[in-house]
Amino acid sequence: MHSSNLRLEEPIRMASILEPSKPNFFPAMTKIVGTLGPKSRTVEIISGCLNAGMSVARFDFSWGDTEFHQETLDNLKKAIKSMKKLCAVMLDTVGPELQVVNKSEHPISLQADTMVVLTPDQDKEASSNLLPINFHGLSKAVKKGDTIFIGQYLFTGNETTSVWLEVDEVKGEDVVCMIKNSATLSGQLYTFHVSQIHIDLPTLTDKDKEVIRTWGVRNSIDILSLSYTRHAEDIRHARDYLSKLDGLDQTQIFAKIENIEGLKHFDEILQEADGVILSRGTLGIDLPSEKVFLFQKAAIYKCNVAGKPVVVTRVVDSMADNLRPTRAEATDVANAVLDGCDAILLGAETLRGFYPVESISTVGRICSEAEKVFNQDLYFKKTSKHVGEEISHLESIASSAVRAAIVVKASVIICFTSSGRAARLIAKYRPTMPILSVVIPQLKTNQLRWTFTGAFEVQYLLCFSSCSWLPLPS
């Protein structure tokens, strides 16, 4: 091996691989984001997810109303209190998501090598040859030969519940497509995605703003996952909106990169965002399959050197229905950790899957094993080289602390912080031991009332690899 990100010694001792994994006092340093939904909304299940390693709970507003999500969040709060574990709350917006509307909710069977029409007339009944959609601009955005994907949950690889279409012709506002594989669509809504086209819809929709203004404010959300982020201006617009709402001025905004537009403007988006989510499912349609891993590695590297958390999605889809991931999925999780990701996001696995707790536990164990062979020395050198010689005083202290802790083989780095910035800078250099962040609250007043700061700072750190927490009583 001429160059490698692994710290494995050659030759590898197979006997050590067969030995049982040793339990750690601290769980995996890579964080796990779990999507809560129908199969993971009771206090019992959520408690199991927290105990298994979930540090961020994601609420996906692509489906379900605010009452449903509020009940789930109330159960999360009960679980947090009983388990005495912290968990950040992430609101995932819908954004300019394109959908097929099936008002009858009857299953729709689509047969390969037949035609189906996509129409913006939502008054029409969905059938095997006609699918109403929520977007009037599709006919102007596509051309003959374009690829369209439709499924209740995008890109699971299960071709019996999702369908590929190829645009054959455009007739007025209708788009006529050839069905490429037989499938049965079930449920009321299906998401559809068209490869590499511009969708002339706002990134933060009126529906998203209403959810944030009501549900988001009521629950003081820690993180806003901005779906379909395409430009830096999307982040600035969302931040301006949050700043005008009571209690959300400190909410962190994570840019969710899902299409070719977000990829093209990645550098400027990274400068504005507090973190990045690589939505590999949707990106897998916009990019050729052989290019997806290149984007993942490049994007993670850019986030690492910028010191901003990066989250990878779609890792163990098969665990929605099975107790064990595929070998390819297990390897994929490990490689994401070795690439330098801060967190793994689980979607269908915990949202509607039969094994939400087991999925989190399994991913956590894989992450822990990968962290043991992470080449921290190479990572430290690359990060330091990128920072250069003109280094700030605080970053100099952070990098020196990591290097010293590694040299003396420290068990933990304890960081006292009020803003969280020092802990984030230490995490940027990926020490081999956990960072225990002692967040010191600050007392502030607006002349009308006194408040303590610290909650947002603690919750944001729950997205960084290596960061653990220790609340200091106020």
UniProtKB/TrEMBL annotation:
SUPFAM superfamilies: Phosphoenolpyruvate/pyruvate domain, PK beta-barrel domain-like, PK C-terminal domain-like. Gene3D superfamilies: Phosphoenolpyruvate-binding domains, PK beta-barrel domain-like, Pyruvate kinase, C-terminal domain. It comes from the Eukaryota. Its cofactor is K(+). Its EC number is 2.7.1.40. It catalyses: pyruvate + ATP = phosphoenolpyruvate + ADP + H(+). The keyword ATP-binding applies. InterPro entries: Pyr_Knase (IPR001697), Pyrv/PenolPyrv_kinase-like_dom (IPR015813), Pyrv_kinase-like_dom_sf (IPR040442), Pyrv_Knase-like_insert_dom_sf (IPR011037), Pyrv_Knase_brl (IPR015793), Pyrv_Knase_C (IPR015795), Pyrv_Knase_C_sf (IPR036918), Pyrv_Knase_insert_dom_sf (IPR015806). GO terms for molecular function: ATP binding; kinase activity; magnesium ion binding; potassium ion binding; pyruvate kinase activity. Pathway: Carbohydrate degradation; glycolysis; pyruvate from D-glyceraldehyde 3-phosphate: step 5/5. Signal peptide: none annotated. Keywords: ATP-binding, Glycolysis, Kinase, Magnesium, Metal-binding, Nucleotide-binding, Pyruvate, Transferase. Pfam families: PK, PK_C. Residues 30-360 form the Pyruvate kinase barrel domain. Residues 395-459 form the Pyruvate kinase C-terminal domain. NCBIfam families: pyruv_kin. Belongs to the pyruvate kinase family. This is Pyruvate kinase. It comes from Rubroshorea leprosula. The lineage of its organism: Eukaryota, Viridiplantae, Streptophyta, Embryophyta, Tracheophyta.
